[in-house]
Design goal:
The complex is a heterodimer of chains A (373) and B (581). Chain A is α/β, with parallel strands linked by helices and 373 residues long. Chain A is built from 14 helices and twelve strands. Chain A folds into two domains: 183 residues, D-Maltodextrin-Binding Protein, domain 2; 169 residues, 3-Layer(aba) Sandwich (D-Maltodextrin-Binding Protein, domain 2). In chain A, strands 1, 2, 3, 4, 5, 6, 7, 8, 9, 10, 11 and 12 form a twelve-stranded mixed sheet that branches. Chain A is globular. Chain B is mainly alpha-helical and 581 residues long. Chain B has 25 helices and no strands. The longest helix of chain B has 36 residues. The chains are: A alpha/beta (373), B mainly alpha (581).
Chain lengths: 373, 581
């Protein structure tokens, strides 16, 4: 009884004295947060991953009395929804679990629509670069994947420029970059890595690249050549995964999707594998972040959920992180090991994106893609 | 006190004034339609908006951003309208005017396809015809050794077929309603005067149903050009874009001004095309045929063609209803889409959470959000159907009664304006308008009210058209007589117009209900976690790759639509039983 009164009082006070109380909440232990969260009763989370359903079950078991309400939305839509809701004065969501760091940094953070929270207990477990301005939960990827069953000797693609050749015409797949921000980020990164792309071109053809007059560098030339080689765009990554990964396929395509899709190989009958040998890179790594929404209705439960999702001190991260302890996902907390089936984080052949540079170049690449479609 | 009386008097005078009703209607339509539209235009004139105009119309992007999509869009619209009129007209003629066996059965069969969301039909098409372009698991036919070329599997052709299969029942509904108003007296007198069948068809029946043909063509055209799901699902692999997929893509990636500009251009293009086709066909005046007296419908004898035509109509109906349903149902039970008819599980319907299937998610009927979504969806359907039909009937009545006057023309044009606003653009306009509080207008984003407002505005043309189709056939004599005996406008409405219009009202209400229950392109930007909707859940599952959940929820939508139309069918027969005598 007294607890619920305390909780209600705190809730009421939060409305008036949010900044200082948020400070207090930020320094509380999980146990202290749980006491307040009990009176809040629930926590709403936008999640880019459907695996949030597993987190929900595990969280509700550990912290009975707090109902997790997961809303499955990709990052692009989360940003659109949060922006629209907050502009209308609707504050319904507590936690955002999203990627698209370039847009989050450019649009959401300066407008204070989200704020960062780092559970005190894990501050020493991860690089400070991954704590500021928002907490990175894990690194996800858009990596070139091939079919291990059809190509048992390793990836058929050793150089990205092979994908622009007649041999691979109509056999390269990608989600539509005009509708999925992560894929747009991938192409933007390729454009930004012009020098490396030019070098790879020379390695393959033995002569320096000639770039079309209207383009900025080898990366953009690659994008144009790739599209002109009948790149196949799909709406759902699921169709891409089965297209590339189907074990029984005789002459399968290759395509960019999340490396962690390989976790479903056994269940779905796929043979997806990352094209680790590809020069100059198989794709990108990008941070997947956890943030507290402005005026979150359940601020303590929000922090408790973030704390839970960051995992415990065990090598697999325990129940909170377990759904993400899979091949192809890399925890930002380096106390959590990489999955034994995966290429180690330090060795994986992926570029890590720089959100600021990406957000500056994104618009131009989007326009280039629209011209090529 | 005096002031109060004076005010009451002026109010009363206003109410009785000839211009009160049309003025009130103009205001209503303006608030629902014109103001959001003005808002889009204003948004496109900001510096950001002007840059978008340049990018869309005068830059190297224009070809892919505007010209090719607009070409595809208009091609789809024209193709779908033609196909729907032919198919729907044929079925309506068969069911209403001939002695084909199993007419009631065929009638129900011909309305069914409209209840299947177009994205479900598109998904079903993909499951059957998918070829090796995407690699991976082949479609049903490809797996059975048939070679499916790209033009059948992807792009314009399948989109056209899926949309015709989806929209022809709309044309059917409108043409059938008009045909059932062709009274036996007319046909019999023509027969007695020695007219041949062909002459009766072209001389009597066709002129009477011309308004229905025009509006059927317009509605299917408008539906096709603003449809998002089918071209998105079937066009993407061959990079076919329509304006609606472009608008969606632009809004989704934060280029909302480009979305507005494309939406405005789509409005202009569609409006121009519809305007000229309307001018082309409608030189003639509408015929007043149905009077207050009951009338019978004359049926032609088909002779030896009875059964072949029955078989043809049944075949068409089954191909567009039962086949997609079987595909949807079996894929909601199949663990992998490759084995459509084997290894079934009911997990995706009622299975518990935390298993190996579906990444630990429970079956849909164990998902509390689904139950919530069912309730919200039905509530939305009923509210919008009621609101739209009240608004639609008032507007239709005003249009018919003030025909020829300036106000009447203005109302008529305004009421059909939403046809030219693709749902997605309408939704964006409503967000622009109600996204922030503005003066006395509160921010409605994420509320049920906003969904109802936007949907009512969006579906107003359908409601008005259904109302008008019936009202325009009601003789002015009766209302005239009522007015002479001193009945006020409200009393005339309730006691004369409404009972005569009830069949059309139910048909229109059903149309609106079904359209909103399975709508996607309007709600996709307006729904929120506080207002979960079935179609959004299905679409979200589909885009996350959980086809079983998506298909299961699609079937739930279908069952809701089915029950609604059965109820309406029963009520219609009970109310206007004399028609079938």
């Amino acid at each position: 009884m007294r607890l619920s009164i305390t909780g209600a009082l705190m809730g009421a006070m939060l409305l008036t004295a949010a900044p200082s109380l948020a400070q207090d909440l930020n320094s509380m232990t999980p146990e202290e947060l749980y006491e307040i969260a009990k009176s809040e009763g629930s926590v709403t989370v936008f999640s880019l991953s459907s695996r949030i359903a597993l987190v929900e079950a595990a969280f509700e078991e550990k912290y009975p009395g707090i109902d997790v309400i997961p809303v499955d939305l990709n990052s692009t839509r989360q940003i659109a929804r949060l922006t629209a809701e907050q502009r209308a004065g609707v504050y319904a969501v507590d936690v955002l679990y999203l990627s698209e760091a370039p847009i989050v940094m450019r649009d959401l953070l300066p407008a204070e629509m989200v704020s960062g929270y780092v559970p005190p207990r894990i501050r020493n477990d991860m690089s400070s670069a991954h704590q500021e301005p928002l907490l990175t939960h894990r690194f996800s990827s858009r990596a070139l994947m091939y079919n291990e069953a059809a190509y048992p000797d390793g990836s058929p693609i050793t150089n990205l420029w092979q994908l622009t050749q007649p041999e691979w015409r109509s056999k390269v797949l990608m989600e539509d970059p005009t509708q999925r921000g992560e894929v747009l980020d991938l192409l933007t990164e390729i454009a930004l890595r012009s020098d490396e792309m030019a070098q790879a071109y020379e390695d393959m053809f033995g002569e320096p690249i000639t770039v079309d007059g209207d383009l900025h560098g080898a990366g953009e030339q690659f994008i144009r050549d790739l599209f002109n080689n009948d790149l196949v765009m799909v709406n759902h990554s699921s169709s891409l995964r089965s297209a590339v990964g189907d074990k029984t396929a005789t002459d399968p395509s290759v395509g960019w999707t999340t490396y962690s899709a390989a976790r479903d190989n056994e269940r779905e009958g796929w043979a997806l594998q990352i094209s680790q040998e590809t020069q100059p890179s198989a794709g990108i790594l990008f941070p997947t972040m956890l943030a507290v929404a402005k005026n979150a209705p359940n601020p303590a439960a929000a922090r408790l959920l973030i704390d839970f999702m960051m995992g415990d001190d065990s090598p697999s991260g325990g129940a909170g992180f377990e759904p993400f302890f899979v091949q192809g996902d890399y925890a930002a907390r380096r106390t959590i090991e990489d999955h034994p089936d995966a290429v180690a984080f330090e060795e994986v052949n992926l570029w890590t994106i720089d959100p600021v540079r990406t957000s500056e170049a994104r618009g131009r690449i989007l326009d280039l893609i629209i011209m090529l479609q | 006190m005096t002031e109060y009386i004076l005010r009451r008097r002026s109010l009363a005078r206003l109410l009785q004034s000839r211009h009160f009703v049309p003025l009130a209607v103009v205001t209503l339509v303006a608030i629902l339609v014109v103001v959001p539209l003005v808002r889009i235009v204003l948004e496109s004139l900001t510096p950001e908006g002007l840059r978008a105009w340049e990018a869309v119309t005068l830059s190297p992007l224009s070809t892919n951003l505007l010209w090719r999509p607009i070409g595809n869009t208009l091609l789809l619209g024209a193709g779908v309208a033609t196909g729907c009129l032919l198919l729907g007209g044929f079925l309506a003629w068969l069911v209403i005017l001939t002695d084909v066996p199993g007419r009631r059965f065929l009638g129900i069969l011909s309305v069914l396809p409209f209840m299947i969301p177009s994205f479900a039909a598109a998904l079903a098409w993909g499951t059957l015809f998918r070829n090796e372009r995407l690699g991976g698991q082949p479609g049903y036919f490809a797996a059975n050794g048939l070679d499916i070329p790209d033009w059948i599997a992807w792009g314009l052709m399948p989109t056209l077929i899926v949309l015709i299969a989806h929209y022809y029942s709309l044309a059917y509904t409108m043409i059938a309603a008009a045909l059932s108003s062709v009274s036996a007296d007319l046909v019999e007198s023509a027969e007695m005067a020695g007219a041949r069948r062909g002459r009766i068809l072209f001389g009597i029946i066709l002129p009477v149903v011309t308004p229905a043909l025009i509006s059927g063509g317009m509605l299917t055209f408008a539906g096709a050009v603003s449809n998002f799901a089918a071209p998105a699902l079937l066009g993407a692999p061959v990079r076919m874009q329509t304006l609606s997929t472009r608008i969606y893509g632009m809004v989704q990636t934060g280029n909302i001004e480009r979305g507005y500009v494309l939406a405005l251009l789509l409005i202009v293009a569609a409006a121009a095309l519809l305007y000229f086709s309307d001018k082309l066909v409608s030189g003639r005046r509408a015929f007043v045929t149905v009077t207050g007296k009951g009338s019978r419908t004359k049926r032609f004898s088909l002779g030896k063609w009875r059964w072949p035509l029955f078989a043809l109509a049944t075949g068409l109906g089954l191909m567009t209803t039962v086949v997609p349903l079987i595909v949807l149902f079996s894929s909601s039970m199949a663990m992998q889409s490759s084995g459509l008819f084997s290894n079934w599980t009911i997990h995706y319907w009622i299975g518990p959470a935390g298993t190996e299937l579906a990444q630990g998610q429970a079956g849909i009927f164990r998902n509390p959000v689904l139950l919530d979504a069912i309730a919200t969806t039905i509530r939305l359907g009923l509210t919008v159907a009621a609101a739209a039909m009240v608004v639609g009937l008032i507007i239709a009545h005003t249009i018919v009664r003030y025909k020829g006057t300036l106000l009447g023309n203005v109302i008529s044009q305004l009421a059909f304006l939403p046809l030219f606003i693709p749902s997605i653009a309408m939704a964006a306009a409503y967000i622009a308008m109600y996204g922030t509080s503005f003066g006395p207008i509160p921010a409605l984003y994420g509320t049920f009210t906003l969904l109802v407002l936007a949907a009512t505005a969006n579906l107003m043309p359908y409601a008005v058209q259904s109302g008008r189709a019936v009202l325009s056939q009601i003789s002015a004599d009766i209302e005239e007589s009522a007015r002479l005996t001193g009945a006020g406008p409200i009393r005339r409405m309730i006691q004369i117009v409404f009972p005569l219009a009830i069949r059309g009202v139910f048909a229109g209400g059903l149309l609106v209900f079904i359209k909103i229950v399975r709508d996607l392109s309007l709600v996709v930007l307006l729904f929120s976690s506080a207002t979960p909707l079935l179609s959004m859940m299905a679409f979200n599952y589909a885009s996350l790759g959980f086809m079983q959940f998506a298909n299961a929820i699609t079937l739930v939508i279908l069952v809701i639509c089915l029950i609604a139309s059965l109820l309406v069918h029963i009520m219609q027969n009970r109310i206007q039983g004399w028609k079938s005598a």
